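Troubleshooting log. The previous structure file for this entry was overwritten by mistake, so regenerating from the original sequence record. Sequence copied from the archived sheet and checked twice against the printout by T.R.
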Amino acid sequence: MKIGIVGRPHVGKTTVFNAIAHSNAEVGNYTNKNQVNLSTVSVPDDRLKPLQDVFGAKETIPATIDYVDRGATSHHAINPNLENSQHTSLDAEVLGELRTVDALAHVVRLFEDHTVPHVDGNVDGNRDIETVDLEFIFADLQIIEGRLNRLEKLLKNEKTPEHINEFRVLEQFQTALKNGKPLRTLTISDQDEMLIRGYGFLTLKPILIVLNISETQLPKVDETRNRFKEFEKYPKTAIIVLAAQLEMEIAQLDQEDAEVFMVEMGLKESALERFIQISYRLMGLITFFTGGPKEVRARTLRDGQTAVEAAGEIHTDFERGFVRSECINWQELVTCGSYSEARNRGVLRVEGKSYAVQEGDVLNILANPT
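Regenerated output below.
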């Protein structure tokens, strides 16, 4: 899973990146605007150690998330004239990077700091959310309009069903975007989604709105959330409130000191833990496990995906040669203490290709060689 951190200039994007990635990327008013910060973060999971004991495994391998802190959107509020969709201040390199991510984390500045003025002169979270939404709408419109022009020429020569369907879908998308509606608000069939998957439309990606507050605003976290809760009514949209500067400072401490500091500040979980939990819910992700003497590994799957698709996450040969899977909930396996005892108790299930993998399943895939 790959999440792109975006936002307007001087909103704290890199500070958020440092807080969740436990990184030391340069922050401040003079950072290089072309700087790209990348980090692969292990997903904390208390289930790995008990499973390691069951399997007698040499190591545990957690699931990971890639975070990309890449570029600011426009320095100024843009004119919301969607008829003139040729405008976007994001360069091609930034757009190309963002189109490859699975979700976006939009950092919105709610803190005041006279040493780092807001580019528009004042702090206004609603304005900044709308500005970035429009930026991404313009970027998607440019892609759609260019492709529609090419499809029109292709359809004059040969009206293939695939091109006809693609033209239909893109026209619907164009209408929605020109009406100011992000594509994530639309209901899209699986068949149509397959047609446009390669475009990486920005407004189709799940988005996590990160409300970046100061330490002094912590007592009013609930009030802050309520001010922006209307945005969570939209599909594939979630909100998290972070005091990113404080969380970054905590992330630099060793574990013992960090835990003490978090208790003092009334924080029950780290920024990373909260960020991951919300990201998983937003993207509809679950975790399943595989294990053996060598390793116990946590793996990520979309909720509703099947055992054969899980086999493909392990190795493409397992997907091609899939016969069946042995499945058991991680807690049941830990309680039993071994696969043999789980079989004796009748809690180890045999499932076929169509089985929908559940959160916390431990899978043993049986496959023919290919």
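The domain at 2-282 is CATH 3.40.50.300 (Rossmann fold). Archived copy saved in two places this time.
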